[in-house]
Amino acid sequence: MADSSHGYVRDQRGCRHWGPHGAAGLLLRRGPRFLLQRRSWRVHHGRTWSVPGGALKAGESPWDGACREFAEELGSVPTMRPVLISADDHGGWAYHTIIADVTEPFGHHRGDREGTAHRWCTPSEIDSLRLHPGFAAVWSRLIVELDTTECLRSGH
Questions:
Q1: 14: exposed, middle or buried (Cβ count in 10 Å: 0-12, 13-18, 19+)
Q2: Which 8-state DSSP code applies to residue 122?
Q3: Integer angstrom CA distances of residue 5 from 54, 58, 70, 113, 119
Q4: What is the pLDDT of residue 127?
Q5: Rounded to the nearest 10 degrees, how much is the dihedral formed by the CA atoms of 119, 120, 121, 126?
Q6: Residue 12: CB atoms within 10 Å
Q7: What's the average pLDDT block by block, 10 residues per block, for the chain (156 residues)?
Q8: Which CB contacts under 8 angstroms, 24+ apart, belong to 7-12?
Q9: Contact call for residues 78 and 28 (beta carbons, < 8 A)
Q10: pLDDT of res. 109
Q11: For the chain: N or C, fewer Cβ within 10 A?
């Protein structure tokens, strides 16, 4: 049976994206640091830093897809608490970034080799990395959304 997550699609702007049903990634946070993955030279936008993630399967939720992709790429999924789900809608195609707090110690493992390295980074360290273009386009907005969400939850 063919994998429903494979294949390119064009959004309403004419841009080409991998994954006919959209894509999702999991951005883990531990204190002030976020876990990023350096993409292998063999994948699209190789040697850039981004979140572990990828194409959604038909009918798969962004949460389930992000967790599945994370497990494929890092070998396991940690115990976590979702904090924010943010969609970057391209008109007919969207990438969903899920930010979650790690709630127990987590040691990642080598998964499917789409990533060559993993690093816990502060926001200022992330700003200095060569980021995947899609992640670079939303990174500053994600931080603002995260701050706003947390202010609303705390009542400030």
A1: exposed
A2: -
A3: 9, 7, 15, 18, 27
A4: 95
A5: 50
A6: 10
A7: 70 78 93 91 82 93 94 88 91 92 77 78 95 92 86 64
A8: 9/92, 9/93, 10/92, 10/93, 11/90, 11/91, 11/92, 11/93, 12/90, 12/91, 12/92
A9: yes
A10: 63
A11: N
Tokens of 128: 């200095």
- Residue 126 is encoded by which pair of tokens? 């992330």
Tokens of residue 115, six digits: 């990533």
Can you read off the two tokens belonging to residue 25? 């990634």
Kindly state the tokens that stand for 11: 């959004």
Provide CB contacts within 8 A for 110, sequence distance 6+: 74, 75
* Per-residue model confidence (pLDDT) at position 138: 93
- Residue 125's nearest CA partner among 54, 32, 16, 25 is 32
Residue type (1 letter), 131: L
Q: Taking the C-alpha atoms of 58, 93, 117 and 110 in order, what is their torsion angle to the nearest 10 degrees?
A: 0
Please choose, from the candidates 106, 112, 121, 142, the residue with its C-alpha nearest in 3D space to the C-alpha of residue 39: 112
Q: What is the pLDDT of residue 111?
A: 60
